[in-house]
Amino acid sequence: MGKRDVDDDDDDDGGKRRKASGGFSDHAPPDDGQSAEIQLDQMLAGGAGLAGLGMGMPGMGMPGMGMPGMGMPTPGLSVPGASAAPELDPLKPATTPMDFSKLGANMPSQEFPVPRDMVEYLMTPEHRQILLEETGCDVDWAPDESKVQLKGSAEQIRKAQRLLQRVLMHCNWGRSEAKVRRLLKPKIIESAVLRLSPMNTLPAGQKTLSQTQPVISIGKDKKANDIVIPAAIVSRQHCVLELDIDRGAIYVIDCSTNGTFLNGLRLPPKTTGKVLVSHGDELLLQDPANDQEFGYVVNIQELNVREQTKLQAPRRLLSTEESATMGRDFQ
């Protein structure tokens, strides 16, 4: 007996025969003898869709034709009422949302104490932003406690501490918001007119400071100084004001025996350091306890100024010869 292409199932009503080939029970073969594949192509082209193929019921998939079961849509076919699923790029790795809420929570922090009389000049929104830009360290002011809260990496905290130390050191000889801003974010002065206006009968002085002529000197020696003061209390070379080209600012160096005073406070000796000078500072050539007007008011007119720059730290150590002749900035 040959292999049968169809199954004969007798029903209860009289043994009527049903087609059981490929799930096309509702469609009779075409008269012209077309194959099932051609029939399927025609039905799809005519918009019959899955419903016309008897495939609308769950579990009626067609594995032999690459059609998944369980009601899953077949690629290339549209199912009425079904929303289009987003296409996934097989070359793109799957991603998950990132949580940044705890970013920096475990970073190191450090408190930096500030003198109470510096709080109003230092703790401003602008200075906080400058510190963040210059060091990368997050800064929180605590004015009631006279403290600065620093948060960041160890290197960022170190840079912020160094910058704050520089501000506090130079502000020992006078403080203002403008001075703090200059110390936090220096601007490079390439040339400036320096005028020394006497507060009593001392001779006035003026000089344009630049890279070629960066120094103005005060003392009793006529050959060694720009401003000569023949007084017993004045040293041969009493003090020097210089335009530091590298830092782009004017500093004062005490070279005297009896002392030079900036805004009422004695300057350190030249071997220890030099101090930033600002417009309007008072420069006295003797202790103000003895005479509060034996000196000058400093006037600075900036001529050429370059863009602001960051300080590079750590600064190199000065040689013995440089320390004896130049003095160094407090950083």
Q: What report would you give on this structure?
A:
The chain has helices at 36-45, 119-122, 125-135, 154-170, 177-184, 320-325, and strands at residues 109-113, 138-142, 147-151, 188-198, 205-209, 215-219, 227-228, 239-244, 249-254, 261-262, 265-266, 275-276, 282-284, 295-306. By secondary structure, the chain is an alpha+beta fold. Among the domains are: 109-183, 2-Layer Sandwich (Ribosomal Protein S8, Chain: A, domain 1), CATH 3.30.1370.10; 186-306, Tumour Suppressor Smad4. Strand 2 (138-142) and strand 3 (147-151) form a beta hairpin. The protein starts with 35 loop residues before the first helix and ends in a 6-residue tail after the last helix. 21% of the residues are buried. Residues 1-12, 14-25, 48-71 and 311-318 have low confidence and may be disordered. Residues 1-35 are annotated as: Disordered. It comes from Symbiodinium natans. Residues 216-267 form the FHA domain.
